[in-house]
DNA sequence: CGACCGATTGACTTGATTCAATTTCGGTGG
DNA sequence: CCACCGAAATTGAATCAAGTCAATCGGTCG
């Protein structure tokens, strides 16, 4: 269960065995959430840190007129709200998109973890990556075509899921509705549908019921202008990007 | 010079007098940057932390096809890259939009500052606000109309500049070209121009050469669906928003 | 089998972009 | 002080792409 966390953090910074054992002990096996269940609501205060162990979730904001914008995906290994005991109120909500296992850590747990220099550094780094993802998403929405936006998102998910062992070299389980995709990339479902069609038509992706296959990852990355360096994973840092 | 930093950090968390004195001593008066000069380039490594003392800058990313997306504004009091010595390479660039004074702090300076609990907390908090701004911008680009996007940006700048004493109750110096606005909100200059016209037509803003006036701030906030709580400033936390 | 949800489609509308002037404005130099 | 220059703002017309609306298709689950 906690292997995804270790996978992710080690992608950022190597960890001593002791730290991994501590992580394992602190995290436990987590609570099960049903599809659609909230992890934290907008405006809530919580002093618990949630960690996604299995399954996927998303961060979102709701507009006064009811529209929704998804502002992040939570994949296994992600710390959802490392800073929750600092904030009085969450400025966004988080919900389970699939059935999830979520660990709930207290401030004491976090202090135990951050007392270890390597862990503290890896956690700090993971927050930097969260911010980097937001910046890249901004570029995505601001300056890319619909198909490139969708392609970029798929590339990002591929890499993030690979790091935690939830994606193969050429694809992953896609449990995203087109409506969610639309609320993520700032388009309508119809446009997302057509963007996916274009990607399929160009042979860049292949979709079966709930699985997505990327026959030529480099080609999709090119189409998406995807440069994995923003994720700051160690491999990506060494490859030096794909654009 | 360092009063803007103190203003900003105190808007997040109260600081003891000693901490303010330390800040003042550490920051000094900064280096002067010319318009357009880079603070840090994309891909650079730096182990200096830059702090905006006077003037304004922006964060940006460049796309392979030459397009640019502005992903943040730097106003007086902002720490530009608090995490720079962690990162090997900046995933985005930062440049001066006006003549600026920028302080350059070393890792030792930062360690001195973060050794003080109140300062550490305020700095940590300022990073949370940076992330919150990115999330709000994502909502802006994804789900708001052109005029609301522009209006929202203006509201945000108003509040952020007010906190550091660079805006009055009803306006501020606007040194933003329409091209920069366009690269910020994901539109073309023409669309931005028309969005501004609509806002002016509705009496929500008034522009003279390099100054923007907002006759009825609440009205503009309403039009922009601007809820200042995401900035997590202490006043805003107490008001409880305007939507 | 029928209800339902999500994906898909087509026709139409709306609104943003593109392109190419034209105007405005601040600053410059005569 | 005024004419001129260049950058930025503004405009209009034509184009094109995304949104809207509404219907249909496909599969899943009671």
From TrEMBL, chains A, B:
<dbReference type="GO" id="GO:0003700">
    <property type="term" value="F:DNA-binding transcription factor activity"/>
</dbReference>
<dbReference type="Pfam" id="PF00027">
    <property type="entry name" value="cNMP_binding"/>
</dbReference>
<dbReference type="InterPro" id="IPR018490">
    <property type="entry name" value="cNMP-bd_dom_sf"/>
</dbReference>
<dbReference type="GO" id="GO:0005829">
    <property type="term" value="C:cytosol"/>
</dbReference>
<dbReference type="InterPro" id="IPR012318">
    <property type="entry name" value="HTH_CRP"/>
</dbReference>
<keyword id="KW-0805">Transcription regulation</keyword>
<dbReference type="InterPro" id="IPR014710">
    <property type="entry name" value="RmlC-like_jellyroll"/>
</dbReference>
<feature type="domain" description="Cyclic nucleotide-binding">
    <location>
        <begin position="36"/>
        <end position="89"/>
    </location>
</feature>
<dbReference type="InterPro" id="IPR000595">
    <property type="entry name" value="cNMP-bd_dom"/>
</dbReference>
<keyword id="KW-0804">Transcription</keyword>
<dbReference type="InterPro" id="IPR036390">
    <property type="entry name" value="WH_DNA-bd_sf"/>
</dbReference>
<dbReference type="InterPro" id="IPR036388">
    <property type="entry name" value="WH-like_DNA-bd_sf"/>
</dbReference>
<dbReference type="InterPro" id="IPR050397">
    <property type="entry name" value="Env_Response_Regulators"/>
</dbReference>
<feature type="domain" description="HTH crp-type">
    <location>
        <begin position="144"/>
        <end position="218"/>
    </location>
</feature>
<dbReference type="GO" id="GO:0003677">
    <property type="term" value="F:DNA binding"/>
</dbReference>
<dbReference type="Pfam" id="PF13545">
    <property type="entry name" value="HTH_Crp_2"/>
</dbReference>
<protein>
    <submittedName>
        <fullName>Crp/Fnr family transcriptional regulator</fullName>
    </submittedName>
</protein>
<keyword id="KW-0238">DNA-binding</keyword>
């Amino acid at each position: 269960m906690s292997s995804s966390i270790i996978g992710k953090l080690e992608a950022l910074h190597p960890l001593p065995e002791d730290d991994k054992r501590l992580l394992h002990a602190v995290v436990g096996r987590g609570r099960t959430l049903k599809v659609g269940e909230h992890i934290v609501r907008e405006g809530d205060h919580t002093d618990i840190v949630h960690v996604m162990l299995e399954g996927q979730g998303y961060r979102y904001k709701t507009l006064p007129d009811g529209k929704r914008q998804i502002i992040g995906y939570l994949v296994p290994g992600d710390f959802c709200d490392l800073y929750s005991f600092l904030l009085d109120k969450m400025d966004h909500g988080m919900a389970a998109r699939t059935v999830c296992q979520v660990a709930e850590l207290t401030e004491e747990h976090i202090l135990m973890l951050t007392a270890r220099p390597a862990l503290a550094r890896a956690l700090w780094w993971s927050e930097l990556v969260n911010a980097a993802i937001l910046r890249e998403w901004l570029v995505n929405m601001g300056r890319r075509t619909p198909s490139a936006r969708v392609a970029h998102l798929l590339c990002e998910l591929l890499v993030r899921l690979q790091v935690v062992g939830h994606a193969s070299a050429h694809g992953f389980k896609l449990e995203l509705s087109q409506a969610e995709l639309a609320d993520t990339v700032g388009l309508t479902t119809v446009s997302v549908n057509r963007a996916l069609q274009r990607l399929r038509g160009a042979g860049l992706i292949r979709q079966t019921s709930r699985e997505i296959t990327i026959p030529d990852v480099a080609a999709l990355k090119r189409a998406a202008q995807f440069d994995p360096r923003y994720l700051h994973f160690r491999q990506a840092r060494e490859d030096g990007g794909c654009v």
